[in-house]
Amino acid sequence: MQRIDSEQLNYPYYAFDYHLTSKLTKPFEKLLDRLHNAVRLFGVPLADLVGRDAEGKIHPSSGWFPVLSAIYGRLLHNDPKKVLSRVSIRIRAGLPHWLIMNLGRFYMHGKVHKIEKQAPLPQGRPLIFTPNHGFVEDALCSIITAKEHAYLVFGTLPHFFNTTYGLAAYMNGSILINRKDKASKQALMDKAVAAMELGTNIIMYPEGTWNKSPNLLMLNYWPGVFRLAKRTNALIVPVVHLVEGKTIHSSRLAPFDPAPYADSDEAEALTKLRDLMSTELMELMHKYAKTTRKELLGTHRTMHHACEHIVRSQVETAGRYYDCEVEAGGADFRCRDTAAPHDVWRSIAGLPVNSQNVGAVLYAQQLVDEDYQHRF
Question: Which of 74, 120, 192, 282 is the most interior residue, by most CB within 10 Å?
């Protein structure tokens, strides 16, 4: 896992925020909360477009919000015909894509992007690029590593409507999904299919959220990437990133063809894809991410505190518009038929302590505290 210096946390695309907003609006928080849920932009509550912090409070909108929502608020529609056109896709595949490919390295906030592998890509079939997810520049790195123009599936609406990072994603071409809205999640597949039928490729994060676990190379994958590939006869192209210090290492692997897998073999295909990406990530870690327990522990009293510091630093790079309500609320994939361990721990951790269960309750509380994926 990467260590992040405090100097890295002040990213320039948050410079236009109205920092006094929270002080001016604090006496009216409850009223504003109701207004943010009542007022809608193309059917989406404003609360979903600015997000909430770790305490559940709505973020103040940035100075960019009125401008960006006016320019591309229509992308919130669930109807593909209202958000996609062949002309707009061709325009974005031209000058905007060239600008991102050639000038994107200047938007890495002091980091150097190094491409380790770029396996050849076949012609004649649409492509779905599947990057791992875990740092604020990974969308830009994925676009550059993919090389072929591809629309980005973008699910962090507060970033999209409140920062210039969202403006850059709009220039590239993005398909929005409101992860708090069931209809929006269902519409994503139709919009992605329509985009591919109009001649573009797709960048989709199979993990669905940032991986904040110190123990998992990859989170479980959402099935959408497999289902989209089956519907469009697309190849899946794994893209793997590793951040080490101020260097981002990226690999574009050989395409994975899901066509031989039947719909009933969905879990097997996703496991195969996850194994391919995990193996590449492990190889990058062996090559570049060497450390010792002493270095990792640093000045922290326990490894738990060291890991917590790393995850906090990771999250803080996303700036004010990291939506805790979504990211910590269960954006990772959960199998419906299997109880999630962290849900079981929470149930036990909340029990009243007595002489018979004190050991189990305290241990469960420790496990909940170490569940960084669902704390941050």
Answer: 192
Last residue of a domain, one of 288, 319, 351: 288
CA dist 122 and 203 (Å) reads 17
- Predicted confidence at residue 12, as pLDDT, reads 39
* 61 Cβ neighbours under 8 A, 6+ residues apart: 18, 21, 46, 49, 50, 161, 162
In terms of residue numbers, what domain contains 239? 6-288
Whole-prediction pTM value?
0.88
Nearest Cα to Cα of residue 145 among 116, 174, 107: 116
Query: Residue 198 — very low, low, confident or very high, per pLDDT cuts 50/70/90?
Result: very high
Sign of the Cα pseudo-torsion (33, 37, 38, 39, in order): positive
What are the residues whose beta carbons fall under 8 Å from the beta carbon of 349, sequence distance 6 or more? 361, 364, 365, 367, 368
Residue reference for tokens 């697309």: 234
Domain end (from 288, 318, 334): 288
Residue with tokens 């507060």: 158
In the chain, the number of structural domains is: 2
